[in-house]
Amino acid sequence: MTTTNNDRWELFSDFHKDVYGFRPSRDHRFWSLTEEEKAAEWERMGKMLEENERQERAEEQERAAKITTQLQGKDRRAAILALHQEHDTHGDGDYLCYKLGVPYGFFDLQKAEG
C-alpha cells in the first residue's frame, strides 16, 4: 500500500485538529521541515494531545463531582429526568453528558435504578 501526499495531508490535518481544535492551512510550516524535524514535531504534538486529554478528563470529573453534590439527597432518577427536560435531550443520556461536559455514562438511568 502506497501512502500519497494527500494521505499524509489528511493524517496531519486530522492530528492537528485533534491537538489544536482546527485544521491547518495547506501551507503549514510542517511541510517545510526535514523528516527529523517532522518526527520531533509529531512527537511534540502527541504530548500536547495527551496533556489536552488529561486536562479534559480532569475537568469532566470536576463537573461530575459538582453535579453529584447537587444530586445528593434527591431521587437520582427524577433528577436526571428533570435535567433531560431542562437541557432538551429527549432522554439521550450521552447527549446530556455531552451538553453538561461530564464523562459518558454518568447519567445512565440503570445506575440510578440499581
Would you write up a description of this structure?
- 68% of the residues lie in helices and 0% in strands.
- It has 5 helices and no strands.
- Helix 1 (5-20) packs parallel to helix 2 (35-71).
- It starts with a helix and ends with a helix.
- The mean pLDDT is 90.
- The protein has 114 residues and is an all-alpha fold.
- It has one domain (33-113).
Radius of gyration: 21 Å
Helix fraction bin? 55-70%
Number of strands: 0
Q: What value does the average pLDDT take? A: 90
List unreliable stretches of 5+ residues. Answer: none
Oligomer: single chain
Class from helix and strand fractions: mainly alpha
Spell the H/E element sequence: HHHHH
Strand content: under 5%
For the largest beta-sheet, the strand count, sense and barrel status come to: none
Terminal Cα separation, in Å?
51 Å
Helix run count: 5
In one word, what is the shape?
elongated
Number of separate structural domains: 1
